[in-house]
Specification:
With 262 residues, this protein is mostly helical. The protein has a domain of 119 residues. The protein is 59% helix and 12% strand. The chain is built from five helices and eight strands, in the order βββββααββαβαα.
Length: 262
């Protein structure tokens, strides 16, 4: 059987899930039996093949065919070496009745006498068919490579946008914090001015009231002082008058005594 040495990737697969083309032998999409390729359309990337065990014909896109074919891929069969009973011979036939690959040693066991058999070399893909499929696969690989590059570029772009968005949010947060700080300082300044003004108003009011009380106090002191001074003056006036009257009285008595002849 002919082999290829490329990789096939399907959308959503990782590298660990892919199968090398040298492990793919263009088996059936419903079992591990070989197929007979009837036609390959390079323009539409489609393949038409016949199931050799029932002669049914199927047409698929090459991408879909390879995807379905890998489900039934058998590495032991792909290696072309028969491991049954340690024959270690190259597979040359496929038994349609047993749905089994056979080597010459398998035929010698006479277990497949009278069975319908296909010669593998007659139905395996020829070089032209393999080249067509290989070119299509390479086209897929190029598309995948471009998609990988686009993905890396988009991831980088997304990271840059994320970083840009983070920086914008950081600047916005910084601006809002500073704006909030400015508002806080403004409100504190207004409240402090109100506080100082209230204190000053209370101080002015207190000083005015204190001055008013002091003035009233002085007036009351002066009034009381004048009141008692007037009383004292009146008492003194009475006293002076009484002293004057008393002196006048006794002066007259002294005078009369002096005038008397002894």
């Amino acid at each position: 059987m002919s082999k290829q040495s490329n990789f096939i990737f399907e959308e959503g697969e990782t590298k660990d899930e892919t199968i090398k083309l040298n492990e793919i032998y263009y088996n059936c999409t419903e079992c591990s039996s070989p197929i007979e390729i009837l036609y390959i359309n390079e323009k539409s990337n489609t393949i038409e093949f016949k199931f050799i065990n029932n002669n049914h014909i199927k047409k698929l896109s090459i991408k879909e065919y390879i995807k379905e074919m890998k489900k039934f891929n058998d590495k032991n069969i792909n290696d072309d070496i028969c491991v049954d009973n340690n024959h270690n011979k190259k597979y040359e036939f496929f038994c349609l009745d047993c749905n089994k690959h056979l080597c010459k040693e398998c035929l010698k066991t006479r277990n497949h006498i009278g069975h319908n058999k296909k010669v593998i070399i007659e139905i395996q893909p020829n070089e032209k068919e393999l080249n067509i499929i290989d070119n299509i696969i390479k086209s897929y690989e190029n598309k995948i490579s471009n998609l990988e590059k686009d993905k890396i570029a988009k991831i980088k772009e997304m990271k840059n946008r994320l970083k840009e968005s983070e920086n914008k949010l950081k600047e916005k947060n910084k601006f809002q914090i500073q704006e909030n700080k400015n508002k806080k300082e403004k409100e504190l300044e207004i409240k402090n001015n109100e506080y100082l003004l209230s204190k000053q108003n209370i101080r002015d009011k207190y000083e005015n009231e204190l001055k008013y009380i002091e003035n009233n106090y002085e007036k009351d002191i002066n009034k009381i002082t004048n009141k008692y001074k007037a009383i004292d003056d009146n008492i003194n006036d009475i006293y002076e008058k009484e002293i004057s009257n008393l002196n006048d009285k006794y002066k007259k008595k002294f005078k009369d005594l002096i005038m008397i002849n002894i």
